[in-house]
């Protein structure tokens, strides 16, 4: 399953970069994120409750920054396991100059693979539930960036 | 004298007596595995792989071990046991079949760890908190792509993904294809993956007693003795210390003549912990791992004469075995597809190339019909294509190729003897009962009104009850084809029949009693049938290959004859008459020319309690064990199926208007239970052809792992099935042939044929199952676009 | 099929239900349990506290609200809806939709309120209630409020009912004789979730020739049950003809984003919406004409 979107922020790229590169931002964007542990400069772990409405379960996630080009590109993998299922998400975030000198345009693409019980039992709903979940995460992320940039350096 | 006996005996065999099993089952008094409760019983839950293909870097059970109620956790690191094969073919690769995954997982649902806890809830909770470090690998999901050299491999030690490759050539097919008068017809038939889905899932209760060293096992199985032997072999527990009991088995459909890692792990845990443990499979577990079958692709071509005579067939088969073929049937289901493909049709030139391929899916198991449904589907699709190309009526084309009664016994191109039967008679009766000609006349009128209706025909020959020689010599299978029965008469003259066969719906308790009572000459009520307990019954191989009535019935007949011989000798001795003059009927011994009679009870009492009254030197007791090895190498049943369907052209949804079966399973012991099996099997075939599908995503995830998506046919989806039987006796005692699998063999072909006939105005080739509304709608839409395209270009 | 641990609280009054929901952190209302319990047994849902409201006696009823409406208590079972003489007389589309839900055992336990609050996009009642312009009365700590159907269904499995609220009742209108209706559920087997579900209401002019008003509710084609507004607008005021109904069917897929599953791809669902909107319109029009004496 693939999802993508884009959003523009009224802040320069280095400011936006700093926020999205921060594991705590990712943690805050995930639903009910707990137990953030930064295990290395490019990896961190934690658990989140993923799902839609009542169909929701706790997943332990391992995040790994697979590739980065500061200020412009980030590839982040998240491998989650829980409720007899696996969720593997590859995310590519690209930052580019926005419409004005102080604006940044963020494009994101996420590729999700779901395995185990969720894939086998909830296939009827999986497309829409995954779409909803991923969109929620990026909506949160955009909000966090906006809040972070509004707060000023 | 003989007349006296004949007059007083009303034969039980051949009568539609009510099933003895039903009163227990419909009252909910059956005993299934989950009904077995033992003191201190522990519960097993499995953690299964969510990945189709991954490395296992580590299994962390530390937090699970801390959880409430957890008694033990077992991982692949704790045991290195494999399931061996009993099929010894020199070219068959034997993939590892570990009881728990060790360094790799190869399919979604593969057991990775087992948790033993004090209740099933806690076991499941703890299993969920085991942390496995997987590194996903690219999965192999499509069997044809798996043959490409660039495909990832399941077993790194192999050079490809081939379990076995077989090439067969009989006659001179290439020569036939080159004949100038040969009309060539080619098609590609894709049969999908589906599962037998018994109502009772698998399950095991195992209890180990350290004092005696006895391991008791209750299992939902079709072959308790084989279960015991394999358990002994894998776990190293002496076989005489193992007792396996199968109570009521809630359906087998083939898959319970397989043994899987989870069942053996449960037995292992009982032995290791010295406790009683229970594992009951969930429906999702069942759909993930048990009974996957039927998935094959056939690229087939036939050469025909213009009059419809079938000259030769060439086929290329790719069978998708998933991770491996299960114990004990291995690759046989695919072999049997190719073997059974010619069916009742005269075929002297046949070649095929069969590749059994491994992929990252659940293992390929035995499934009622056992390869034959696919073989039948494929040849019937070919015949329908040929009829269309040659502009012949499909019934007429079939009729011209049927093997006639004068050709019996007929030796097939594989050297298999078709022992008896009248295929043309069955076929013409099918057309008559199904109203074939009448339907053809009305079909045109209906089409003019926009109604898409069609009729499909299929016919198959099923080799049932294979003999030991056939199994070992031809299939390399170290399995007996005989079956045993022990008849024990107690002092009151009542008889217990014990057999290693096990009824999973075939009414053995009824029919073996009918056979035995008839043969002995005692009332039906004086016979009880006990099955499914290795400590009661002589070693038997169980219910599979539609063999129960032939082999078990044969054993009952032989044992009853011997027992009766002894009873007659005692009666003659007591009556003071020559043994030839004594007869036994309705439980009473009478001698010609003598007014004196003796009851069975009197004779049995003497034989057991007063042996001093026996003839000089006669051994006391009334117990006989006999084994019956089928006289024919394999007994051939056959049937002809006719289906009529209607398609909604806008949605692609199919409805079945009529279904007719003409069946010949030799002499029928109980026509009602026989027809019941045909009805059930046709329902099974309808389910498999239209509704049921184990569909995998490109990532190797099983998408249909609950009954919300794995659609079984309901009473609303199965029409009334009209069944009529011919009874051509076999050469086996009793004249029986096998029956249990039949309906599921004929249905896919008949339904696909009916759909193609309904869609004939669009010239659509129905060559892929299941026949889902969306697929059929897609075919219709493409045909409409093709037609629109032709019209658009002025063609 | 063993759910994770959960706490179970059975309540017998609406006030008690609201109090418990307010007290607990991870509470989930249990009504008939026909959607929630299977999800729990499959471990896809694991609420901390189940607040069982099925024992509240005064939430199960069907009663007239004047001449023009019927009020249905949220704990009324599908079977009761299916066999209600009052609904059959005033709002027959609802019993028709209820009769097609799953199987008899589920209809005996499942409730109209539970089904509405669960908001499964493939359920039969929500699109029907949408087409009816039903009104949903919700009670919570701050009192009660009424939400129109078009606002009630928010997103996938999400409605206006908040965590500390419960749905009290649903009000549906009385359909006059000029109305025709149809509910069509297209599925692979009887009782399955629909591949598409189509609820249709039409109101004809007195001659039975013109469509005064059309409402089309759809199931299983969007993250929420929805209305085919473009088709409705197109049909309003039109003279009925096969061509018009066909065009409306075509327009009924506007704005739909059906998901795909193994029983129907997104495209197939769009195709089937067209087929069943057209057939449903034909059926509804026929009914309206018969009822209005214009066969």
Brief overview, please?
The complex is a heterotrimer of chains A (153), B (795) and C (295). Chain A is α+β, with helices and mostly antiparallel strands. Chain A has 4 helices and 7 strands; from the N terminus they run E-H-H-E-E-E-E-E-E-H-H.
Q: Enumerate the strands of the largest sheet of chain B in spatial order, edge to edge or round the barrel.
A: 3-5-1-12-9-10-11
Taken as a percent bin, the fraction of beta residues of chain A is: over 45%
Q: Globular, elongated, flat, extended or rod-shaped: what is the shape of chain A?
A: globular
Note the gap between the termini of chain A.
37 Å
CATH topology of the largest domain in chain B: Aldehyde Oxidoreductase, domain 4
* CATH fold-level topology of chain A: Alpha-D-Glucose-1,6-Bisphosphate, Chain A, domain 4
Describe it.
The complex is a heterotrimer of chains A (153), B (795) and C (295). With 153 residues, chain A is α+β, with helices and mostly antiparallel strands. Chain A has one domain: START domain (Alpha-D-Glucose-1,6-Bisphosphate, Chain A, domain 4), CATH 3.30.530. Helix content of chain A is 32%, strand content 50%. Chain A is built from 4 helices and 7 strands; from the N terminus they run βααββββββαα. Chain A has helices spanning 13-20, 23-29, 117-121, 123-151; strands at residues 2-9, 34-40, 43-52, 55-69, 73-82, 85-97, 104-116. Chain A has a 7-stranded antiparallel β-sheet. In chain A, β4 (55-69) and β5 (73-82) form a beta hairpin. Chain A is globular and about 50 Å long. Chain B is an alpha+beta fold and 795 residues long. In chain B, 31% of the residues lie in helices and 23% in strands. Chain B has 21 helices and 28 strands. Chain B has a 7-stranded mixed β-sheet with strand order 3-5-1-12-9-10-11. Chain B is globular. The termini of chain B are far apart. The model of chain B is unreliable at 1-9 (pLDDT under 50). With 295 residues, chain C is an alpha+beta fold. Chain C has 12 helices and 14 strands. In chain C, the strands form 4 sheets. A 5-stranded antiparallel β-sheet of chain C has the order 4-5-10-6-7. In chain C, strands 11-12-13-14 form a 4-stranded antiparallel β-sheet. In chain C, β13 and β14 form a beta hairpin. In chain C, α10 (229-235) packs antiparallel against α11 (242-251). Chain C starts with 6 loop residues before the first strand and ends with a helix. The model of chain C has no long low-confidence stretch (mean pLDDT 96). The chains are: A alpha+beta (153), B alpha+beta (795), C alpha+beta (295). Chains in contact: A-B, A-C, B-C.
């Amino acid at each position: 399953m693939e999802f993508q979107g884009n959003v523009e922020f009224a802040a320069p790229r280095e400011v936006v970069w700093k926020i999205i590169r921060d594991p705590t931002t990712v943690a805050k964007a995930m639903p009910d994120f707990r137990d953030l542990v930064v295990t290395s400069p490019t990896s961190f772990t934690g658990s989140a409750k993923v799902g839609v409405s009542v169909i929701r379960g706790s997943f332990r996630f391992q995040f790994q920054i697979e590739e980065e080009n500061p200020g412009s590109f980030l590839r982040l993998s998240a491998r989650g396991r829980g409720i007899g299922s696996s969720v593997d998400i590859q995310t590519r975030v690209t930052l580019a100059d926005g419409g004005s000198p102080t604006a940044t345009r963020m494009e994101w693409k996420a590729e999700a693979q779901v395995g185990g019980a969720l894939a086998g039992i909830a296939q009827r709903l999986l497309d829409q539930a995954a779409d909803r979940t991923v969109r929620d995460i990026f909506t949160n992320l955009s909000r966090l960036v906006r809040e972070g940039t509004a707060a000023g350096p | 004298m003989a007349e006296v006996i004949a007059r007083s005996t009303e034969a039980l065999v051949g009568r539609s007596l009510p099933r003895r099993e039903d009163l227990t089952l419909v009252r909910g008094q059956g005993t299934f595995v989950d009904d077995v409760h033992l003191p201190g019983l522990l519960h097993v839950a499995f953690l299964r792989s969510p990945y189709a293909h991954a490395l296992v870097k580590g299994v962390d059970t530390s937090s699970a071990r801390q959880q409430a109620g957890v008694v033990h956790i077992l991982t692949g690191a704790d045991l290195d046991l494999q399931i061996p094969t009993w099929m010894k073919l020199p070219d068959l690769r034997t993939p590892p079949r570990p009881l728990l995954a060790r360094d790799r997982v190869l399919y979604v649902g593969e057991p990775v760890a087992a948790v033993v806890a004090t209740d099933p809830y806690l076991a499941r909770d703890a299993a969920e908190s085991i942390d496995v470090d997987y590194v996903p690998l690219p999965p192999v999901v499509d069997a044809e792509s798996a043959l490409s050299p660039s495909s990832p491999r399941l077993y790194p030690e192999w050079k490809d993904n081939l379990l076995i490759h077989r090439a067969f050539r009989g006659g001179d097919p290439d020569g036939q294809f080159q004949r100038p008068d040969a009309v060539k017809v080619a098609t590609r038939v894709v049969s999908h993956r589906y599962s037998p889905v018994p109502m009772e899932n698998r399950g095991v209760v195992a209890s180990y007693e350290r004092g005696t060293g006895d391991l008791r096992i209750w299992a939902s199985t079709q072959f308790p003795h084989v279960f015991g032997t394999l358990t002994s072999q894998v776990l190293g527990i002496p076989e005489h210390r193992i007792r396996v009991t199968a109570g009521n088995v809630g359906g087998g459909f083939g898959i319970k003549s397989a043994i899987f890692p989870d069942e053996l792990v449960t037995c292992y845990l009982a032995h290791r912990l010295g406790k009683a443990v229970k594992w009951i499979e969930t429906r999702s577990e069942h759909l993930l791992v048990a009974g996957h079958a039927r998935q094959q692709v056939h690229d087939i071509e036939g050469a025909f004469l213009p009059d419809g005579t079938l000259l030769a067939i060439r086929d290329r088969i790719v069978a998708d075995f998933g991770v491996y073929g299960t114990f004990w049937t291995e690759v046989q289901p695919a072999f049997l597809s190719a073997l059974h493909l010619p069916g009742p049709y005269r075929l002297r030139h046949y070649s095929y190339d069969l590749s059994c391929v491994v992929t990252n899916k659940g293992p390929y198991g035995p499934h009622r019909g056992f390869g034959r449904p696919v073989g039948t589907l494929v040849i019937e699709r070919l015949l329908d294509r040929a009829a269309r190309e040659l502009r012949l009526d499909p019934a007429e084309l079939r009729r011209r190729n049927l093997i006639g009664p004068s050709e019996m016994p007929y030796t097939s191109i594989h050297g298999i003897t078709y022992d008896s039967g009248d295929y043309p008679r069955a076929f013409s009766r099918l057309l008559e009962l199904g109203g074939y000609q009448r339907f053809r006349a009305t079909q045109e009128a209906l089409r003019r009104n926009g109604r898409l209706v069609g009729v499909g025909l299929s016919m198959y020959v099923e080799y049932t009850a294979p003999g030991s020689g056939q199994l070992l010599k031809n299939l390399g299978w170290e399995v007996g084809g005989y079956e045993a029965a022990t008849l024990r008469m107690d002092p009151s003259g009542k008889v217990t029949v014990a057999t290693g066969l096990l009824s999973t719906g075939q009414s053995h308790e009824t029919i073996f009693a009918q056979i035995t009572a008839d043969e002995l000459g005692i009332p039906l009520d004086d016979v009880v049938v006990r099955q499914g307990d290795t400590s009661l019954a002589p070693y038997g191989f169980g219910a599979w290959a539609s063999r129960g009535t032939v082999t078990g019935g044969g054993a009952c007949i032989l044992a009853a004859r011997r027992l009766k011989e002894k009873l007659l000798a005692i009666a003659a001795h007591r009556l003071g008459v020559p043994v030839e003059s004594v007869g036994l009927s309705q439980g009473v011994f009478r001698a010609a020319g003598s007014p004196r009679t003796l009851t069975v009870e009197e004779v049995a009492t003497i034989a057991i309690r007063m042996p001093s009254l026996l003839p000089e030197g006669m051994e006391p007791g009334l117990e006989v064990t006999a084994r019956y090895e089928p006289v024919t190498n394999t007994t051939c049943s056959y049937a002809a199926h006719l289906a009529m369907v209607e398609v909604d052209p806008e949605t692609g949804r199919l409805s079945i208007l009529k279904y007719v079966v003409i069946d010949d399973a030799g002499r029928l012991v109980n026509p009602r239970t026989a027809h019941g099996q045909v009805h059930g099997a046709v329902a099974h075939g309808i389910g498999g052809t239209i509704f049921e599908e184990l569909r995998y995503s490109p990532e190797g995830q099983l998408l249909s792992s609950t009954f919300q998506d794995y659609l079984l046919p309901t009473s609303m989806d199965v029409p009334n099935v009209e069944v009529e039987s011919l009874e051509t006796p076999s050469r086996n005692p009793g004249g029986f042939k096998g029956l249990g699998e039949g309906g599921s063999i004929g249905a896919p072909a008949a339904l696909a044929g009916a759909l193609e006939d309904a869609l004939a105005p669009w010239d659509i080739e129905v060559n892929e199952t299941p026949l889902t509304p969306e697929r059929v709608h897609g075919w219709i839409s493409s045909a409409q676009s093709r037609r629109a395209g032709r019209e658009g270009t002025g063609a | 099929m063993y759910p994770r641990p959960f706490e179970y609280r059975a309540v017998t009054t609406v006030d008690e239900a609201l109090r418990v929901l307010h007290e607990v952190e991870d509470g989930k209302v249990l009504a008939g349990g026909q959607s929630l319990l299977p999800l729990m047994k499959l471990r896809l849902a694991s609420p901390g506290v189940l607040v069982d409201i099925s024992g509240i006696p005064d939430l199960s009823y069907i009663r007239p609200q004047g001449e023009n409406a019927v009020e249905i208590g949220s704990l009324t079972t599908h079977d009761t809806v299916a066999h209600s003489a009052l609904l059959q007389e005033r709002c027959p589309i609802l019993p028709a939709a209820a009769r097609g839900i799953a199987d008899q055992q589920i209809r005996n336990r499942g409730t109209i309120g539970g089904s509405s609050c669960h908001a499964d996009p493939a359920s039969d009642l929500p699109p029907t209630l949408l087409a009816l312009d039903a009104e949903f009365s919700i009670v919570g700590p701050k009192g009660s409020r009424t939400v129109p159907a078009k606002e009630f269904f928010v997103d996938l499995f999400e409605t206006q009912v908040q965590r500390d609220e419960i749905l009290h009742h649903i009000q549906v209108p009385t359909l006059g004789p000029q109305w025709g209706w149809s509910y069509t559920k297209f599925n692979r087997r009887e009782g399955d979730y629909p591949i598409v579900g189509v609820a249709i209401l039409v109101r004809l002019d007195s001659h039975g020739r013109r469509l005064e008003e059309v409402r089309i509710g759809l199931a299983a084609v969007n993250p929420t049950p929805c209305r085919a507004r473009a088709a409705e607008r197109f049909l309003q005021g039109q003279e009925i003809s096969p061509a018009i109904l066909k065009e409306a069917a075509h327009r009924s897929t506007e704005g739909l984003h059906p998901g795909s599953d193994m029983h129907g791809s997104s495209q197939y669902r769009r195709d089937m919406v067209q087929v069943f909107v057209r057939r449903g319109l034909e059926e509804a029009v026929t009914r309206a004409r018969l009822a209005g004496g214009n066969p």
